[in-house]
Amino acid sequence: FAKEVQASLPCALNIHTNQLENAKEWLPLFPSFIKPYACEDIIGGEIGGAYKNVIAIASGICEGMGLGNNARASLVARGLVEMTRFGKYFGAQDSTFLGLSGAGDLFLTANSTLSRNFRVGIGLALGKTLPTILEEIGEVAEGVKTSKEIYSLSQKYNIYTPIAKEVALIMNGKNPKQSLNDLMKSS
Question: What's the pTM value of the predicted model, to 2 decimals?
Answer without folding.
Answer: 0.94
